[in-house]
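Now for our specimen.

. . .
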Amino acid sequence: MAFATETELEAYTGATIATDRATILLDMATGAIQAYTNQTMTFEAGDSITLPGNFGHLLTLPERPVTAVTSVTLGDTALVVDVDYVWDGKDGLYRGTKVDGILSVNGPDWLVNGWGDWGGPGAVVTIVYSHGFATIPNDIKGVCLALAARSLSSPDGVNSESVGSYSVSYSRTGGAVSLLSEEKALLDRYRRKVFA
């Protein structure tokens, strides 16, 4: 689902745009934002993911913002919230127990696999959680609209063209759906860093 609507794009550009063209432009702009941030951004309830375990106490969920954690399974063992793991209210799951509101990461040895780890790299952790924005924030929507509008006015990245003694001038983005450095700076707070 695109981060802005056809009506919003028309209001932003002051032009009437065919629905199919607006849809393509907004979808391309949304895709560019998602690729840059490594996030889907839109709300998804009950998303099931599988992550490798680790020997540490922290497991970071890939999509943000996290709005709820429904279940966590380590191998074949269903873990109990605040007993076997604690959600930090952001994007982290800590392997431990909560005693009187305080996280005990290396807590009692009755924890599954003990000592507050996620079973090591060979373990499989399955998490069902909800994430994303029910309403896309205005800064993200603004970048989407600006990118779609640039693509509308210059789909091939050409700003001007002359015929006599042929001349052409390209946009500073280098293409129709390239993010400007200012737009990247706006999106950086949503970006999830990925290391290969």
